[in-house]
Amino acid sequence: MDDKIITVTCPKCGIKITNPVSWFKKPGTCCPGCQLRLSTERFKRAIETAEEQG
User: How far apart are CA 33 and CA 17, in angstroms?
Assistant: First the structure.
């Protein structure tokens, strides 16, 4: 699942971020458009839920 490419929209600037799941799980990940620090905990929970369902 870490290799799967997903697209997420930044809640601050609206840029679409397309990266592997593993990129979103890294602590300190920032939006490449506005440098907003993304909540890795929120991503991890959503990814874990998707993995359980998939």
Answer: 9
Domain of 15, in residue numbers: 5-53
pTM of the model: 0.71
Low-confidence ranges of the chain (pLDDT < 50): none
CA distances from 8 to 5, 14, 17 (A): 10, 9, 5
For residues 17 and 28, what is the distance between their CA atoms, to the nearest angstrom? 15
Structural domain total, the chain: 1
The structure tokens listed for 20 are 């592997």
Q: Do 30 and 46 form a contact (C-beta atoms < 8 A)?
A: no
